[in-house]
Amino acid sequence: MKKININQLEIGELSNKSKYFSIIESLLFVSGEPLKLKNIAAILECEIQYTAEILNEMQLKYVDEERGIKLIAINDEYQLVTKSQNGDYVQKLLKTNTRQSLSQAALESLAIVAYKQPITRAQIDEIRGVKSDRAILTLQEKNLIKESGRLEAPGRPILYGTTEEFLRCFDLSNLEQLPELESLLNEAEEEASIDSN
User: Fold this and answer.
1) pLDDT (tens digit, 9 = 90+) per residue, 119-138?
2) Which InterPro entries would you find in this protein's record (predicted)?
3) What residue segments make up the domains of the chain, in order of their start?
4) Which terminal residue of the chain has fewer beta carbons within 10 Å of its beta carbon, N or C?
5) What distances in angstroms separate CA 192 from CA 24, 63, 99, 128, 196, one per listed residue?
């Protein structure tokens, strides 16, 4: 019976991982859309846990290396995206201004939806103290918020929530990564008191 030494196992493991890195990179590149972890695992014919480990290593590899792309994960879906620091150059290539800034009203409305979702337009209006129709429409056009159901109340108003595009734009894996609302309010109060002095 042939003995396999530990070093041979490690080398075999590394070559398998390199092979899987290459395959996953090709899958994500060709897809252009996010791929679910379970689908990647099925294509590789690997366990989901092992596939997740490979994807995590790939994410670290893209961060460490001077690459123009990175691997992001949102709700167990993985996608290759360009690094934000190269956005200006990509825009020149595409000759579009995809990074149009949001108005103050749209930013306020987006923050309210992000922290209070699911929420109705009337509730957003109440928090802001002004109508938010145009801001909500803009956020929907930019695919940052979406209809996420209807409130069980007279008139059955639409409920709004954030989208995966919202997570992508703010480089979040999930909503739990949003900063604590209390700490943001405390920072705003501190800045206001410094400005008033």
Assistant:
1) 999 999 999 989 999 999 99
2) ScpB_csome_segregation, WH-like_DNA-bd_sf, WH_DNA-bd_sf
3) 6-86, 104-196
4) N
5) 48, 36, 29, 19, 6
